[in-house]
Amino acid sequence: MRLDKFLKISRIIKRRAVAKEVADKGRIQVNGKLAKSSTDIKIGDQLRIQFGNKVLEVAVEELHESTKKEDAAKMYRIISETRVGNNDNNGN
């Protein structure tokens, strides 16, 4: 399954066009390698997605051509979710 389609169906990213844009800007890695929107995703792959100041790492658990909203989260398992960037701990 294409990366952009997986991100949309799993509802990690709501729209396929946005998923394609994020991937093509070099913000997604699959198994540690930069991925394009057309990258083929398999069960067991690990995705690292950078959204602005947040990095989400997930493992692909299931692949479906379509899914109900309540089943979408079963398609992946969150490994980690971290905030990156400017921490305002310096009193500003």
Shape label: globular
Which whole number gives the mean pLDDT? Answer: 91
How many β-strand stretches? 5
Structural class: alpha+beta
Helix fraction by DSSP (H/I, runs of at least 4): 10-25%
Q: Summarize the biggest pleated sheet.
A: 5 strands, antiparallel
Count helical runs. Answer: 3
What Rg do the Cα atoms give?
14 Å
Percent strand equals 25-35%
Distance between the termini: 46 Å
Helix-strand topology string: HHEEEEHE
User: In what order do the strands lie side by side in the largest sheet?
Assistant: 2-1-3-4-5
Assembly state (oligomeric): single chain
* Unreliable sequence segments: 88-92
InterPro entries: RqcP (IPR025490), S4_RNA-bd (IPR002942), S4_RNA-bd_sf (IPR036986)
Pfam family, one: S4
Domain RNA-binding S4: 1-64
Family: Belongs to the RqcP family.
Task: Describe the model.
This protein has 92 residues and is of the alpha+beta class. It is 22% helix and 28% strand. It has helices spanning 3-9, 16-24, 69-72, and strands spanning 28-30, 33-34, 46-51, 54-60, 76-83. The protein has a five-stranded antiparallel sheet with strand order 2-1-3-4-5. A hairpin with a 2-residue loop joins strand 3 (46-51) and strand 4. Helix 1 (3-9) crosses helix 2 (16-24). It is globular and about 35 Å long. Residues 88-92 have low confidence and may be disordered.
